[in-house]
Design a protein that fits this description.
The chain contains 3 helices and 16 strands. The protein has helices spanning 13-49, 60-88, 92-127, and strands spanning 141-142, 157-162, 165-178, 181-192, 195-207, 212-223, 226-229, 234-235, 242-247, 256-258, 260-261, 269-281, 284-296, 304-310, 314-319, 326-333. 20% of the residues are buried.
């Protein structure tokens, strides 16, 4: 006799119930097995596609290049939105032309972003994937700069002329301490027809091996006597900026090195092309003993400058290989 409220189970229903339970258990087992297999595949994909930060597959240099590319793309969209907003504020008859120009500017900017990314990727392939973060120990730096290819004696002025510009490079007696290193301050002024268009204060220091390091600059650009830009200014240790080497103690053909680094602001590099260059300019000359470098930056892909360094002086000639324009040392004023 069955209990009140509970249905009776017949003898024929018992085997069927057991079979149903077995099928349910088997179904759950298969589901768990499939879930485990899927999770294993996903884990493998994660390990292959997204390596652990700092692991053997980590590529800091490429990650920096990709981050800069993403930021560039975001800035393009922001600039385009502002441009369209300005177009919408114009008379109706002018809006279409304005929008077309905004679209063209956007496309040009995209191409420049891609070129900069490719240039940074080339740098990574040349220098390697290791993050750029040189260790600076103030105890390893010396007073004065005596590197034969980049001597900086206070009171010395080098005057250059070329491309319609006059560049006056003066080694001051001022110093500034950056990252614990006492740096010599150089005042570099560029003028056109007597009007200053750029006024820069550079900071350099030499380590005990003879390498000359570049610790930063304050760069001011002028138009019609008014300050219009501080673009390119940086200081080592501030906002991620890192010092670079402006002249190696023992340069060798094929050497490539960073002269400065602040992402998207200061990314100049140099490659030693030869140690036996020759050049003749109004104030100096060299015969098979000039150091020749190619200087370039991912910020301006395709733009390079070839510089000739003479012992005991520094740069005596700069040539733009794309135009042939020469900037020559025309006068040396010594203390």
């Amino acid at each position: 006799m069955g209990s009140v409220g509970k249905p009776e189970v017949t003898a024929m229903e018992v085997p069927q119930a057991k079979n149903d339970i077995k099928q349910d258990i088997e179904s759950r087992r298969l589901a768990v097995q499939k879930a485990f297999q899927l999770s294993s595949v996903l884990l493998l994909v994660c390990l292959v596609v997204a390596p652990t930060q700092g692991g053997p597959d980590d590529k800091p240099c490429s990650r920096v290049a990709k981050a800069a590319k993403d930021a560039c793309g975001d800035q393009i969209e922001a600039d385009f939105s502002i441009a369209i907003g300005k177009c919408n504020n114009l008379p109706i008859s002018e809006r279409d032309a304005c929008r077309q120009q905004a679209q063209a500017d956007k496309q040009d900017a995209r191409e420049q972003c891609a070129e900069q990314f490719n240039a940074r990727r080339d740098v990574c392939n040349t220098l390697g994937q290791t993050e750029y973060h040189p260790i600076i120990n103030p105890a390893e730096f010396v007073d004065g700069i005596t590197n034969p290819f980049f001597p900086l004696t206070p009171g010395t002025t080098l005057i250059y002329s070329g491309g319609g510009e006059v560049d006056t490079f003066t080694v001051t007696d001022k110093t500034q301490t950056i990252l614990g290193v006492r740096c010599i301050v150089v005042h570099d002024v560029v003028a056109v027809n007597g009007e200053v268009i750029e006024d820069t204060l550079d900071r350099f220091a030499q380590d005990s091996k003879g390498n000359v390091w570049y610790f930063g600059e304050v760069s001011q650009e002028f138009e019609n006597g008014e300050l219009v830009s501080l673009e390119g200014s940086w200081r080592a240790g501030v906002n991620g900026a890192q010092p670079g080497i402006i002249m190696k103690a023992d340069p060798r053909a094929g050497d490539v090195y960073r002269q400065e680094f602040l992402l998207n602001e200061a990314e100049d590099l140099a490659e030693v092309m030869a140690l036996n260059g020759s050049a003749m300019v109004p104030a100096a000359s060299c015969n098979n003993d000039c150091l020749v470098t190619r200087e370039f930056t991912p910020l301006e892909p395709g733009t390079t400058a070839n510089k000739y360094y003479a012992r005991g002086i520094g740069v005596i000639l700069e040539v733009d290989p794309s135009t042939g324009v020469r900037t020559e040392l025309v006068q040396i004023i010594r203390p």
